[in-house]
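User: I'm putting together notes for a lab meeting next week and I want to include a structural view of one of the chains we've been expressing. I don't have a solved structure, so I'd like a prediction I can at least talk through. The sequence is below, exactly as it appears in our construct file.
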Amino acid sequence: MIAGKTWREVRWMALAYLVILEALCVPVLLLWPDIYEDLQRSTLFKNLGIDFAKRILQGVTDKDEQIAYTNWAAVMLFFRSTNLVCVAAAVLFGTGLFARERENQTFEFLLSRPVGRGAILWQKTWPTALCLVLPIFLVNLSAIFWSRRIDLDLPLPELLLGSAHASAFVLFFLAATTWLSALMRTQAHVAAAIGAFAVLQLGVYLTQRLRPYSLFRLADFEWYGPLLNGNVSARQMLDPLHGPGYTTWLLLAAAACYALCLRALRKATP
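Assistant: Thanks for the context. Below is the predicted structure for the 270-residue chain, given as structure tokens.
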């Protein structure tokens, strides 16, 4: 029953989120032939002073168009869409899971129901997580179809690995926002707190010497580019002992926030 109510609350936002992701995906892929020609001719960006921007430019101007296109997909589908649209959606969905209940004066009623608080958290979390993760896979899989319209291709296994990593990144933000939603009394306060965290992390990422300490370093072009080009294996994604293990670290961080949220709910009084 709680899961059904949660689904009804987020379903239209989830549909809008899916449409926005697809609307951002289609034009940048179909316009690639013209973009590639312009990038090959342009000298405007040759003297960029930002190192990660230089690497992106090198990737999307590779002499092998297939490699350049795969790098372009890594930038547009993952580095851009995941880090902007998907994170924003995670914050939007997560802010209301419990803070909205407080604002609507139904939080006490929710906690007093004959359902364990762990069950309440789970039934609010899994429909929301599904609404966040499923569009990532659907839109990125649709990119294969759109790529074939311009006689190029994207590798399915690597695209699935990239989508899985993007999902872990987004789930961390959902879990962190849900935890704050359980602690704070208004959605505005939750949005301000998680927004400040995201802006701080982005500012650290844009500072060259501090970039390794930014959360966004785990989901930038330097990760997605090699991944989509087949240079990062599933083992490297998941095994922190013999590889970066970024996906595992993100999932562990999400699990930690989930546990903190459960602790906050158990301490809350109806």
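A couple of points you could mention at the meeting. Residues 62 and 163 are 24 Å apart (CA to CA). The mean pLDDT is 90.

User: Perfect, that's what I needed.
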